[in-house]
Structure prediction request, 410 residues.
Amino acid sequence: MTAKEELLAVLHMNAHTRGDDTFEIFKHFIDKNKIPVCKLVSITTDGAPSMIGRSNGFVAKCREDEAFPDFLSYHCIIHQQALCAKMLNMKEIMDIANKVVCSIRARSLQRRLFRLHLEEAGSDHSDLLLHTDVRWLSRGKFLQRFRDLLPEVKQFLHDNKHAEYPQLNDDRWLLDLAFLTDLANLLNELNVELQGKDKIVIDMISTVNAFKGKLKLLSSKIQRHDLGNFRNLASELNNQGKDLTEIDSACYAEQIDTILSDFDRRFQDFALLEPVATFMCFPFLENAEVDVLASKIATMFQLSSAEVEDEILTLQADINLKSRAHEQFWSLLTEEKYPNMRKCATSLTAMFGSTYLCESTFSHMKFIKSKYRSTLTDDHLEACLRLAISSYCPHYASLVEVIQCKSSSE
Prediction:
């Protein structure tokens, strides 16, 4: 009843990367290595058209193949969270901030002078950050660093007679910058919490639901002018010497509600899984609607609804199991008595909630296959990636025992 998260293989695609091309390469790999694809539970993708296309997408091709069982497919939770973060209305803020930062960092002389200016001012930071839209945490870190160094930036622009940016002295623009920095930081915290290996889908759903509840609370708080969770906004108000009632709380609450509605819209697939996940975490809830729950489990994992109902009722009445409800609970269920419940538990444990392992593999590949190792073969690249990603530790003593020692030439 345990799951191991590991990199299976890196399949190289040197030509087209369409959905059917991806499927053919994957199909050839599983046939060659005799992988029991009949045990497949779910496929998690990054939401690219070549993966989720209705007719020629990779997932559609897998469903058409008779060797594949009925499986669930989801859009990566972390990708969806990053897409929700893009709903922030940040164009006016980001455009000005990017122009200012690029005017300093894009020229080597100006960058050196600015770094010297920071050093002389005794700043905690040594440079500005550039914004990269494809990086999940970039926006929040970029805005926070820009705001932290805003006094030094304004002084540097004035001393070196750079182009003037009136927004940097506009109180409303500075308040908007502080609010969006706080909100971007909150989204970054959620993203970091969703990252990492061995994150089961139940934990990730719980994290997202907790954040949605936090957004609802923040929306009501800011309308009451409670800035306990908005450190940058409170600091900017203090700098301007303004009262809490002078902020545009309705506009800021609307921004939060927009993100919340996008979270509700995007995570509908996982919302269907939530009742089943809740039951599997604690199956002894007295108010559980057994027939509705059994129908959902049966539909999701292709089981008999009547048999699932019987097993749920038997399970909830089992005094011995009820007294031993802990983390290893599902391993106590016998295959003979609870086959459907065990399948449901193992399937939920085996489901990937995100493509984090793939994304981290790409990050490692950027460093491994650099311009200094441009002739690295595909096989060597895969071996290097496996060493970088895998959590397995070789048993060196056993490996040495099976290797024949080289005899002396004397």
Remarks:
- Residues 171-194 form the longest helix (24 residues).
- The mean pLDDT is 88.
- Residues 84-266 form one domain.
- The CA atoms of residues 294 and 309 lie 5 Å apart.
